[in-house]
Design a protein that fits this description.
mainly alpha
Length: about 150
């Protein structure tokens, strides 16, 4: 991304996500996703790499959903600080958990990358952690739907 396109994206993010709570939740998820993809760069085992790429692609597909939740939460309860609005506390909690789970998923992938010899169960531990991320994003969407209906 060039300098000008990054600046345009930053202004768009400011407009849609604000500069507070929802922007931080979005950016944290994005950083976790970047970290997972960075871990992939060092995987030498082809089979393990294939499994991790599949998980990475599924996690990347969540980014649009996370952004949509954060944009809607910002619309409902604009935030330029770190105060959690009571009405959307469930949304924030689920997004925070998703960000944390994504970080532990990347950590699990990094541990597999560092394993010596073949990994007998492949990326099963990473898959289990990724499942938590999927559930928590869905939970954030459910909480948001409950607040908007």
């Amino acid at each position: 991304m060039g300098f000008f396109s990054a600046a345009r994206q930053g202004r768009k993010d400011d407009a849609e996500l604000g500069k507070g709570l929802w922007r931080r939740a979005h950016d944290r998820f994005h950083r976790g996703l970047d970290r997972f993809h960075q871990v992939l760069e060092g995987v030498e085992d082809d089979q393990l790499y294939g499994e991790l790429v599949e998980i990475a692609n599924e996690l990347a597909a969540l980014m649009d959903r996370v952004r949509a939740v954060c944009v809607e939460a910002q619309r409902l309860s604009p935030s330029d600080g770190l105060d959690i609005p009571v009405a959307l506390s469930g949304v924030h909690r689920a997004l925070s958990k998703a960000g944390n789970s994504l970080a532990t998923t990347a950590e699990a992938a990094a541990m597999l990358r560092l394993a010596v010899g073949p990994v007998p169960v492949g990326a099963a531990s990473v898959r289990r952690r990724a499942e938590a991320v999927f559930e928590q994003v869905a939970d954030a969407e459910r909480h948001l739907a409950g607040e908007t209906s």
